[in-house]
Design brief:
Length: 466
């Protein structure tokens, strides 16, 4: 009886609570349906504003990529498709004289119209895509003539951009680095000016299918104001166009990026021209050394010759092996000739002096009073001039000074200082007179002839090449 009464109570309670639960569930369903209606209204409003925003994720359907064959160029079978080009030069990375090439980094932008990519848009807003869409549509096949290496930058992603407008106009931009040939002329090196160009051309499409042109004429080529090179001034950037003919395929449109480079001369003045001048002037010092100082004059001449050969070798190692003469070669080889002639000049002086002494010995039976056997042997040994008169004068001066020291211990110091000054002056005048009297006539004329001719050569050289 007790269990039966409990069951009756629970049944009554459950019947009383069931209508409240069903009412709560119906309220939740009504709220969910109202939020869904609100979302649908917002989507409908977005479609009314601009279809590109509503279908941005569905660009395949929007651009109708699957409905067209993009292996064919736009307007195939009709007039050539115009492709405009403009370039923003970021930097000229390097110029190599040995390889005769240059490396340039720039932004390359293509402009053309492909009606197959047109899409409806009430606000005429464009859509921008990255490199993933580029492989699915037609793009111009531009390549760089005479290029050695090139690559598209890919940090942090591939530096490529595609922008499509509702009317089918397309902008395709990429950042690229190219190493290309530059046919340089080194006949005036290092006082030269080089004209280089980067050439753009379609690889597959002739002028009947694709027409390349500069988008904004000469203004299509823009450069960074801070472009600088270690050895060159960038004087001029210009854009031009032309045609290229291949016998097997036909005529192609070609665009040119031209730039003029003028070399810095100061580096080569310090590293090449100035050391060469110093070596030539150093070789003239031998004209003032006594003709009997064989070790001094020969060693000086050989040192200057070897130094000039080292300068020439260092310059040749950093230059291409061209078959014509460069401006720096003219200067270095003429300077080497001056140094070499200074050595030959001493050989002539030494030989003529020996011949004169031999003739003098045959006539009188003794050598000239200017030299004796002991003097010549001593000079050949230590490279210094020894004169018996000078040694006698020095001995007499020393004896005279000892005698004065014995006699005049009572004299004061000013008299001693004055005697030493007179002794030094007389020795200096005597040695100078000996050097001037013992000079060969060839040395005398060489002191004037060599500097004069070298100065005239420099005036002509810098007047012609600068």
């Amino acid at each position: 009886m007790i269990l039966a009464s409990l069951l009756v109570v629970f049944t009554c309670v459950w019947i009383a609570l069931t209508p409240d639960a069903s009412a709560a569930s119906e309220i939740k369903k009504e709220r969910r349906s109202s939020s869904m209606k609100r979302t649908r209204k917002q989507e409908a409003r977005m479609r009314e504003d601009d279809s590109t925003k509503a279908w941005l994720l569905q660009y395949n359907q929007l651009l109708q990529i699957e409905d067209h064959d993009f292996a064919m160029r736009p307007g195939f079978g009709g007039s050539p498709v115009p492709v405009g080009i403009d370039v923003q030069v970021e930097s000229i990375d390097s110029i190599s004289e040995v390889n005769m090439d240059f490396t340039m980094t720039f932004y390359l932008r293509h402009y053309w119209k492909d009606e197959r990519l047109s899409f409806p848009s009430t606000t005429n807003k464009s859509m921008t895509f990255d490199h993933r869409l580029i492989k699915k549509i037609w793009v111009p096949d531009i390549f760089f003539v005479h290029s050695k290496r090139s690559f598209i930058h890919d940090t942090t992603v591939e530096n490529m951009m595609l922008r499509v407008y509702p009317d089918g106009n397309v902008l395709f931009s990429l950042r690229i680095t190219v190493s290309a040939m530059c046919f340089m002329d080194f006949s005036r090196f290092p006082l030269d000016t080089q004209n280089c160009s980067l050439e753009l051309e379609s690889y597959a499409y002739t002028e009947e299918d694709l027409m390349l042109y500069w988008k904004r004429g000469n203004k299509s080529l823009n450069t960074d104001e801070h472009i600088s090179l270690s050895q060159f001034f960038t004087e001029e950037f210009s854009a031009s166009s032309g045609f290229a003919f291949y016998s097997s395929t036909g005529w192609y449109n070609r665009l040119f990026i031209n730039f003029v480079l003028r070399r810095h001369i100061f580096f080569f003045v310090l590293q090449t021209y100035f050391p060469a001048m110093l070596m030539v002037m150093l070789s003239w010092v031998s004209f003032w050394i006594d003709q009997r100082a064989v070790p001094a004059r020969v060693s000086l001449g050989i040192t200057t010759v070897l130094t000039m050969s080292t300068i020439i070798s260092g310059m040749s190692a950093s230059m291409p092996q061209v078959s014509y003469i460069k401006a720096v070669d003219v200067y270095l080889w003429v300077s080497s000739l001056f140094v070499f002639l200074s050595v030959i000049e001493y050989a002539a002086v030494n030989y003529l002096t020996t011949v004169e002494e031999r003739e003098q010995f045959n006539k009188t039976g003794k050598l000239s009073g200017m030299y004796n056997i002991d003097t010549v042997q001593a000079m050949a040994f230590d490279g210094c001039y020894h004169d018996s008169k000078t040694e006698m004068d020095q001995t007499s001066f020393s004896l005279h000074s000892e005698e004065n020291s014995i006699r005049g211990r009572s004299t004061d110091s000013p008299s001693t200082d004055s005697s030493q000054i007179k002794r030094r002056q007389s020795l200096g005048e005597h040695v100078g007179r000996i050097i001037l009297e013992n000079n060969h006539v060839i040395d005398t004329y060489s002191r004037i002839f060599f500097p004069t001719v070298y100065i005239i050569f420099n005036l002509f050289y810098w007047g012609i090449y600068v």
